[in-house]
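Journal club prep, notes for RB
We'll compare a predicted complex against what the paper describes. Inputs for the guanosine-5'-diphosphate case:
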Amino acid sequence: MTTRIVELRRGILKKNDELAASLRRRYTSAGVFVLNLVSSPGTGKTAFLERTLRELLGQGARAAALVGDLETDNDARRLAASGAPVRQINTHGICHLDAEMIAKHIEGWDGVTLSGLDYLFIENVGNLVCPSSYDLGEAVRVALLSVTEGEDKPLKYPTLFNSADAAVITKMDIAEACGFDREQALKSLNEIRPGIRIFETSAKTGAGMSEWLAFLVEAREKRESLA
Ligand SMILES: Nc1nc2c(ncn2[C@@H]2O[C@H](COP(=O)(O)OP(=O)(O)O)[C@@H](O)[C@H]2O)c(=O)[nH]1
Ligand SMILES: [Mg+2]
């Protein structure tokens, strides 16, 4: 019985990986830089992404977002306030986004084509376990951690953090009030993913956003030059 469950799981992941690889080829040929944002619920993904979209659009970049949640279109409505095209994906009980859901929602997206975008952000379902196993074809996976969550979360959920290419610490404006141990958080992240690029941000005050935006532009240009 255990063997069959493991085999079924491997089969699902293999199918996802194949579809993700074909999505990655599509993103590359369209010239769109795709990022997958993962964290627990409430970390501040939507607030951080809304600010990111607003600032990118302000710089003249073309950016859009897909956002996953079990139910509701609350986050899509919040993100759309940035002025960017946004599409909600409701997973109806599934704890992560998969490549098939992304492929389906890229099709028939009103007024949006991949080749018309510079950046596509995917806000994953809030969960520190399931999203780590599902490649969405992204160029960069970003793990977010807020100052209220506990500095040891990277150690407790290593797969999510060690599959990430960059980490964002959110809600730095309330770090002091929460007794956030910055050194400990940086140490935990580095233990799990040595040398990972870390941004210390606040969607509320805008702290750390200019470093983050510079990283986006640079990472996208680097990718374009390799394509
Ligand atoms: N103080 C503060 N609160 C924030 C910040 N970012 C998000 N929040 C709050 O944290 C809660 C969860 O944010 P949300 O963006 O919905 O998180 P998500 O579930 O990861 O998408 C909301 O009440 C936000 O107002 C921030 O930078 N500073
Ligand atoms: Mg959200």
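Talking point for the session: The longest strand covers residues 63-69.
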